[in-house]
Amino acid sequence: MAELTGAALEILAFGVQADEKPLIERAFAGHHEIRCLDVFLNQDTAPIAAGYEVICTSVNCDLDNRVLQTLAAGGTQMVAQRSTGFNNIDLKVAERLAMTVARVSYYSPYSVAEFAWTLAMAVNRRVVRASIRTRDFDFRLDGLMGRDLHGRTAGVLGTGKIGEAFARIAHGFGMKLLGWDIAENPACLELGMSYVPKEQLLAESDLVSLHVPLMPATQRLIDADALKTMRDDAILVNSSRGGLIDTAALVTELRAGRFTGVGLDVYEAEAGLFFLDKSLEAIADDTLARLVTFPNVLVTSHQAYYTEDAVGQIVDATVRNVLDYKAGRRSENVLVPRS
User: How large is the angle between the packed helices 161-172 and 109-124, nearest 10 degrees?
Assistant: First the structure.
C-alpha cells in the first residue's frame, strides 16, 4: 500500500499495455514511482487502489459513481486519464468527492487521422480479403475491385485537429471536401472544404469519417435515419468513439447489402472486450459477433492513437498533469480542479 504523505508519490496505473509500460516507467523516473497494471479499473478492481493518492487510467476504465466512491474511500485524490476522451468518468461525482481529474487534451492528431485513412483504404481495396487469399495461395482478383478516391467526395464529421488532419490527406488524394461541425475551421476552408448540414454531407459523400467527441448531443449521431441517408456504395469510418454509431442499425443496413465498406476502430460496447484476449471465450455480444462476419467490414481494437509519437505525448502530458497536481498548478488538461 502506498503512503499518502511525502513529496514523492507512488502512482497506480490501470490498463497499461505491454508497449506502453516502458514509456510510462521511463517518463515518471526521477519524479514519482509508478506501478503498472494490465487490468482495467472497474468496480471489481477499484479496491486495489486503496492507499494510492494518484491513479492513472485509460479510456476503457470505468469510473462511475460506485468506482469513484470506492477510490475516494481508499484515499485516492487524483485521477490522471491517459486519453483525450473522458466519457468514462462521472465528473459530477468526482467534483462532489473533491477528486481532481485531468486528461490529455492534445496528442498527435496524425496518429488517428492516418489510421482512419488506413481503414478507409483497406476496405475500399479489399486488403484484408486479399491478404487472407494469398496466404492460401489463391491469387484470383474476383471480388477485390475497389474505386479511385481521386475526384470523389469525403465528408468529415468534426473538423478539429484530427478532422483537419484527415481532410488534408483527403485533399492530397484530390477529393472534394464536405464538413460538418459547430464551428468552421479556417484551415479546412483553405483546403476548399464546404460546410453543409449533416444530412447533406451524408447524402453526398462517398467516404464519411467521424471525428467528433462523444457527448449527449453526439450519442448515436449516426443512427438508423442517418445511415439510410448515406449512399448505398459509401464508405463509413469511425476512429473516434463507438457510441457515435447505432451499431444494431448499422448491422441492419449491412444485412441489406449496403455500403462498399465500413472501418471501425471503436465499438459502442467495447468496454470489457477491447484491449483483452477473448480468443478462447464465447462472445456474448451478438451485435459484435455479427458485425465482424461481414466481408466489407473491418474492425480493429481501438488502436488509432497507438503510435510511438502519440503514446509518448500522452505519457509526457500525464506526467505533467501529476506534477501540476502536486504543485497546486492548474492547466488546460484539468477537468475537475483540486479543491
Answer: 50
| pLDDT tens for each residue of 56-74 | 999 889 999 999 999 999 9
Is 302 a catalytic site residue?
Answer: yes
Our CA angle for 5, 320, 334, nearest 5°, is: 90
Domains of the chain, first to last: 10-107+307-336 (3.40.50.720), 109-299 (3.40.50.720)
Q: How confident is the model at residue 7 (pLDDT cuts 50, 70, 90)?
A: low
103, 211, 241, 258: the active-site residue = 241
**Strand partners for 177:** 154
With cut-offs at 50, 70 and 90, classify the pLDDT of residue 4: very low
How many other C-beta atoms lie within 10 A of the C-beta of residue 248? 14
Cell matching residue 10: 507512488
Per-residue pLDDT of 121-152, as tens digits, reads 999 999 999 999 999 999 999 999 999 999 99
The answer to whether 231 is a known catalytic residue is no
Alpha-carbon distance of 305 to 23, in angstroms, equals 15
Whether 152 sits among the annotated catalytic residues: the reply is no
**Which pTM was predicted?**
0.90
Centre a 10 Å sphere on the Cβ of residue 133 and count the other Cβ atoms it contains: 17
- Which residue is associated with the grid cell 467495447? 270
Looking at residue 222, the DSSP 8-state letter turns out to be B
Hey, is 111 helix, strand or coil? helix
Which parts of the chain are beta strand (E)?
10-13, 33-36, 54-57, 78-81, 100-102, 153-157, 176-180, 194-195, 207-210, 235-238, 261-264, 297-299, 334-336
C-alpha cell at 157: 464529421
